[in-house]
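Hi everyone, sorry if this is the wrong subforum. Our group has a chain we'd like a structural model of before ordering constructs, and none of us has done structure prediction before. Sequence below.
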Amino acid sequence: MAGTLYVCATPIGNLDDMTFRVVKCLQSVDMIAAEDTRNSIKLLNHFEIKTPMTAYHEFNKYDKARALVQDMLAGKNVAIITDAGTPCVSDPGEELVRQAVEAGITVTSLPGPVAAVTALTISGLPTRRFAFEAFLPTEKANKKERQRILEELRTETRTMILYEAPHKLRVTLQDLSDVLGTERRISLCRELTKKHEEAIRTTLGDAIALYQEEDPLGEYVLVIEGRSPESITEEAQANWNAMPLAEHMQHYLDQGMSEKDAMKAVAKDRGVSKRDIYNELKT
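Answer:
Right subforum, don't worry. Here is the predicted structure as tokens:
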């Protein structure tokens, strides 16, 4: 009978956030797949967990996942943990889960801390709908992909969540400001669940000014206000209004619309009545 894969969340800072269920699970499984065994051994020692560990990380995730799947098919139970928080969220554990699911292995998650959600809940920004972007591609590794994602965020109406390292924070804040504007609200959360936890609630422009004077410290979770639907509509109307009316009409006539339907579409684009369009065309 095949074993089970347990996705186990671990603390993101405060060890008191470790759940009893995760401790029991890590004590009972046959093997723990850890992102960094040198880091995880401190956690296991703290909770007196003696279960063997194996390294599972970005650079061995495909081959090691195949080996672990074979172990589980042979009946072993495996738990996966990351350095901090919930595995498989912007994390190599995603590959192990994928292979386990394809092999028909039971996968279950033991919930716990997630830095993105922790930051969202204290950000003061809307929480009903949000988009998790994790780390942006670095400029050196993939500048075009980074710019493509930033452009997608330009019209994102949901609250956005990004991760960033301290030495890259200034560049990322400037890139975000260039795309989203200096007045966009942001909450910069650092040292979450730790003694010096901090949430700086400000605007992108003021955040840039702040870190011109101060050095960024610690890993950051950036929670950014989404764009209002009203502003998207206003921008679209402004773009249409900048187009000559005759050209705007021709845009829809070329699509096979009747003159009446084209006037209706143009009026909607420009935020005016169809009568206004009719009167302007007749003058």
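For your construct planning: The chain is about 45% helix and 20% strand. The mean pLDDT is 95.
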